[in-house]
């Protein structure tokens, strides 16, 4: 059944009364400048016309055959509602600036005569002699595109590329938003697995050759000789602990109708199971209902990073906080000017595992090591993700290389070693490090590892610097460290940076204050050129969240409409909507072991989704699941004045969990819902201001396949929830 389009087949001859009609000298000499004629297959009617194929034998109309090698993928015209158009994209000459001319509606060709777009905004077919910029991809306007061609446009024409996506979809598209199995079932569904774009041979080569500079060429000795760690006692370490005097944190946890009140001191933890069952009811043979803990770091959580390459009976989590800092005239604008030296610390927590890679509920987390620094608070922390063999002795264990950006604007790399079987906290004061870099007249804002030897860092003036660790160690200590690549790719402050490791380590993703997510090829001779840097659709608000999802070969970001989007690496200028939240996003993370994505909001929700099914069948409805919801309220005057009140001056927090899988609200409209319009769903939470302590500020998946279901979430009030999300 077809629906007749109401659009006119041809344009109207006259839109207004032409006062100069009949004067030949004033007539338009270029008839092609008139708006193009619309045919019966107009945009307004395509959604109502089914794809038809005429049978030559009898002249009847039959349905199109599904000859796709990747079964279940919808036609590209079906995903029109979910895939963004080429809004903001234009054909550019090499002499035209992409920064100044981006989004101009009256784009002219290089010769300055014929416009590349008509007055109606339609693209013009360029003359053969017209020199314009080409993406190198065919432009089909998402219409009448076969499924196989859709796959080739998204993942490439090489069968090995889209075959890996098909394997990942077959493995995980039937799973829910959260991982449900530790090991694959009999059909190979579910479970954890490393990236399919880094095979066994590539991973073994990374183990053998990627760390030769460190193990065989003296890199480890140079790092440890140049960095000076001094062990200090607890009294000396209190100078670096800015939250040592913070009162206990009160929070509710457990059943909704009867939650339990918990009070937790700084640097201590409580089991999640205690919030659901009274401690006196525990028995040695009872099975816990929750496998996880809640930590109190004492201040707003800034960073959470699990240490990779840990196959021992312990897992390690590096954390940093952001205490309240008074910004005055002495230190200026802290976002663009390096802050003066101030004491701070990085905490490394140790979690015990059992024989089945579950989190041991009978062993409380241990604050293993505290790294005391004078560089201010850590703004970003990243462990080197490259595969490496364990390096350990009877007393110590090497966790790997930890790179960070601190408040003083510097970039540093630390070689971290922790005690193996210790029951007390070790305090280390860092006197010097082997790798330190400061950009001229600006500061570093974010960083990402490219390999075991190279890392990239972004600056506040829109530049990206790439450093080589072995090259830096070959220089004398008094020689300033210079990057092997330093180029400007953005016009504003770069908020986030991540590499497309392990499948494409030379590609980086950035998000800046100009609103454009960028994909940049660092292997190009000119990374800032049009051929090496691709822009996605611009967001009207500043979005500082972007992550790489290796299993779907797409970048994950959140826009101003509270929607997480997937930007395919080969069609970065389009997007696929994955879901929708009810508040602005504040944290985002992906896992290298499974496809589940977590993002946190200012409302305190941590939402999980699995994009594999929607990537394979983009027309299906997206679903997501809330891991938990965190709420905070201030203390009342009566609670503050009463010393015996258990809530105290810090206020009260609450954890709510047990949410089911639900469909994404796709027609959410705040204004319509607020006015009570019939048929409007959702609520006007997009306009709601929440307490700063309510927000989820940091998220992290465990990168080890053994414990890939472990997740950590930090909140604005200093509480961190660490849980094994795989059902026991």
Keywords:
single chain; 728 residues; mainly beta; Methylamine Dehydrogenase, Chain H; 2 domains; eight-stranded mixed β-sheet; six-stranded mixed β-sheet; globular; WD40/YVTN_repeat-like_dom_sf
How would you characterize this protein structure?
- It is built from eleven helices and 37 strands.
- It is mainly beta and 728 residues long.
- It folds into two domains: 1-65, no CATH class; 219-247 and 260-273 and 287-327 and 339-724, Methylamine Dehydrogenase, Chain H (7 Propeller).
- The strands form eight sheets. Strands 4, 5, 29, 30, 31, 32, 33 and 34 form an eight-stranded mixed beta sheet that branches. Strands 3-15-11-10-9-8 form a six-stranded mixed beta sheet. It has a five-stranded antiparallel beta sheet with strand order 6-7-37-36-35, with no helix packed on it.
- Strand 22 (504-512) and strand 23 form a beta hairpin.
- Its main location: nucleus.
- Keywords: Nucleus, Transcription.
Element layout with pairings:
Elements: H1 43-46, E1 52-54, E2 61-63, H2 147-155, H3 159-172, H4 200-209, H5 212-215, H6 219-226, E3 228-232, H7 234-237, E4 249-253, E5 260-264, E6 269-271, E7 292-296, E8 300-306, E9 314-322, E10 344-352, E11 366-373, E12 378-383, E13 396-406, E14 411-419, E15 426-432, E16 435-437, E17 444-449, E18 454-459, E19 463-468, H8 469-473, E20 485-488, E21 494-500, E22 504-512, E23 517-521, E24 533-535, E25 546-549, E26 554-558, E27 564-568, E28 576-577, E29 585-590, E30 597-601, E31 605-609, H9 612-616, E32 623-633, H10 637-641, E33 652-657, E34 662-663, H11 670-674, E35 696-701, E36 710-715, E37 719-724
Parallel strand pairs: 4-33, 11-15
Antiparallel strand pairs: 1-2, 3-15, 4-5, 6-7, 7-37, 8-9, 9-10, 10-11, 12-13, 13-14, 14-16, 17-18, 18-19, 19-20, 21-22, 22-23, 23-24, 25-26, 26-27, 27-28, 29-30, 30-31, 31-32, 32-33, 32-34, 35-36, 36-37
Region (Disordered): 26-49, 114-141
Keywords: Nucleus, Transcription
Subcellular location: Nucleus
């Amino acid at each position: 059944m077809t629906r007749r389009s109401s659009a006119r087949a041809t344009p109207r001859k006259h839109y207004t009364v032409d006062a100069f009609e009949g004067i030949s000298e004033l007539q338009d000499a270029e008839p092609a400048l008139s708006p193009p004629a619309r045919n019966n297959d107009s945009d307004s009617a395509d959604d109502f016309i089914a794809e038809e194929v005429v049978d030559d034998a009898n002249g009847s109309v039959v349905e199109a055959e599904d000859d796709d090698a990747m079964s279940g993928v919808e036609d590209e015209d079906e995903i029109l509602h979910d895939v963004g158009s080429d809004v903001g994209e234009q054909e550019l000459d090499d002499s035209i600036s992409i920064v100044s001319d981006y989004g101009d509606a009256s784009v002219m060709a290089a010769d300055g005569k014929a416009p590349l777009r008509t007055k109606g905004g339609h693209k013009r077919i360029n003359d053969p002699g017209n020199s314009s910029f080409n993406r190198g991809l065919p432009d089909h306007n998402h219409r009448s595109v076969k499924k196989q061609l859709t796959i080739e446009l998204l993942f490439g024409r090489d069968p090995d590329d889209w075959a890996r996506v098909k394997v990942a979809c077959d493995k995980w598209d039937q799973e829910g938003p959260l991982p449900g199995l530790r090991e694959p079932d009999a059909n190979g569904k579910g479970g954890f697995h490393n990236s399919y774009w880094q095979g066994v041979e590539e991973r073994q080569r990374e183990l053998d050759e990627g760390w030769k500079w460190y193990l065989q060429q003296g890199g480890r000795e140079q790092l440890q000789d140049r960095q000076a760690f001094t062990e200090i006692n607890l009294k000396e370490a209190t100078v670096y602990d800015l939250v040592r005097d913070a009162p206990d944190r009160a929070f509710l946890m457990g059943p909704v109708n009867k939650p339990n009140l918990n009070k937790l001191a700084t640097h201590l933890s409580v089991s999640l199971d205690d919030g659901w069952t009274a401690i006196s009811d525990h028995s040695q043979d009872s099975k816990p209902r929750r496998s996880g803990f809640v930590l109190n770091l004492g201040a707003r959580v800034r960073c959470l990073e699990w240490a990779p390459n840990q196959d021992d009976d312990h897992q390690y989590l590096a954390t940093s906080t952001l205490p309240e800092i008074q910004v005055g005239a002495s230190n200026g604008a802290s976002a663009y000017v390096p802050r003066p030296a101030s004491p701070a610390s990085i905490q490394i927590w140790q979690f015990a595992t059992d024989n089945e890679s579950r989190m041991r509920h009978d062993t409380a987390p241990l604050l293993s090591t505290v790294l005391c620094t004078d560089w201010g608070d850590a703004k970003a922390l990243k462990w080197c993700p490259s595969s490496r063999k364990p390096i350990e002795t009877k007393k110590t264990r090497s966790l790997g290389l930890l790179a960070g950006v601190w408040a003083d604007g510097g970039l540093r790399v630390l070689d971290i070693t922790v005690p193996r079987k210790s029951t007390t906290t070790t305090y280390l004061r860092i006197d010097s490090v082997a790798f330190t870099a400061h950009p001229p007249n600006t500061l570093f804002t974010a960083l990402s590892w490219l390999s075991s030897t190279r890392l990239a860092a972004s600056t506040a003036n829109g530049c990206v610097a790439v450093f080589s660790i072995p090259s830096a160690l070959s220089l004398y200590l008094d020689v300033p460290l210079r990057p092997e690549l330093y180029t400007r790719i953005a016009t504003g402050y770069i908020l986030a940076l991540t590499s497309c490791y392990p499948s494409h380590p030379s590609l980086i993703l950035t998000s800046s204050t100009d609103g454009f997510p960028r994909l940049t090829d660092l292997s190009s001779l000119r990374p800032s050129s049009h051929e090496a840097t691709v822009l996605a659709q611009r967001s009207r608000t500043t979005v500082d969240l972007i992550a790489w999802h290796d299993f779907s070969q797409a970048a994950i970001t959140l826009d101003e409409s509270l929607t997480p989007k997937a930007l395919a690496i080969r069609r970065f200028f389009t997007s696929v909507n994955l879901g929708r939240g009810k508040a602005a996003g504040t944290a985002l993370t992906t896992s290298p072991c499974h496809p589940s994505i977590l993002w946190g909001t200012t409302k305190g929700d941590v939402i999980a989704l699995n994009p594999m099914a929607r990537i394979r069948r983009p027309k299906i409805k997206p679903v997501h699941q809330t891991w938990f919801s965190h709420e905070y309220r201030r203390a009342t005057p009566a609670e503050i004045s009463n010393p015996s009140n258990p809530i105290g001056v810090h206020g009260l927090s609450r954890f709510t969990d047990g949410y089911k899988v639900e469909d994404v609200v796709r027609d959410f409209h705040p204004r319509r819902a607020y006015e009570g319009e019939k048929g409007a769903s959702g609520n006007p939470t997009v306009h709601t201001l929440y307490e700063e302590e309510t927000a989820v500020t940091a998220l992290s998946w465990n990168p080890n396949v053994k414990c890939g279901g472990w997740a950590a979430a930090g909140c604005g009030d200093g509480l961190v929830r660490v849980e094994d999300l795989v059902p026991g």
